[in-house]
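[stage:ingest] chain + small molecule (beta-L-arabinofuranose)
[stage:ingest] validated
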Amino acid sequence: YFSWARLLPVLGTLLHAVQADNPIIQSIYTADPAPIVVGDKVYLLADHDENGSTNYNMKDWRLFSTADMANWQDHGVIASIATTFPWADINAWAGQIIARNNKFYMYLPMRRRGGNMAIGVAVANSITGPWKDAIGKPLLENARIDPTVWIDDNGQAYLYFANPGLFYVKLNADMVSYSGGIVQVPTSVSSFGSGREPDGTTFAEGPWIYKRNNLYYNVYAAQCCSEDLRYSTGPSITGPWTYRGVVMASAGKSFTNHPAVIDFKGKSYLFYHNGALPGGSGYTRSIAVEPFTYNSDGTIPLLTMTNA
Ligand code: FUB
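[stage:predict] done
[stage:export] tokens:
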């Protein structure tokens, strides 16, 4: 016999399978999403904001995975400053994982003991670990943060990083060293729009570099602080970049935001963070995701946070 009482839980399950509720991780505070598709799953590297935090003194990095963009498995701490990087002391910030050589490489910013922010690199045979410091020292020093990595079609890997300014190095095939110098990307108004950053553009931090359909994208956190998300595109991984506009117009209850974009099972997704969980703020953030469809010319539509 027909009964709404029986049907509603089934409908609820079906809806949940289509779209996860934001924020997607509700058990802890998370920030700076870095998803990667591995096989039939998305793995999500996340920073971990401590309960009640009033600063960015984060200590470890977390991993989550999903096969359906609705149900997320918690793989726990995959690297921490205390156990993985003895040369660092605090500030486990925004990183990214990439696969190569039948291994996984993870680029992570943290503060060198008694020094500035630096970028380390960890390596693992499986994305769930165990992860080890690959070189026992920083790969990049001098206040570098927010690494994003991409392997171009010719096999050359590029590690971009930021703040202040936008830079890249060409990684060697071993993925744990680089050749040539650090290249600073010119941040002109035509590349990053006219804004209130010290260089007169909108580029602040958090670049996420990728290629899709012969177009290179640099989606980034803009106009610190409160940040929004904007993007530029270019004909090559080194640009020249052309400013394309706003992707998401706020950071919610956070004052930073941080983008990541992937395609998975035929859909495109923007990951970001805000302060949507109870107790949420600029230092107790939550990762969320919005599905979207590229416009036919490859531009990204303006997206709105849900459940912010
Ligand atoms: O989470 C610490 C820092 O805040 C990140 O490195 C920036 O991108 C901003 O989200």
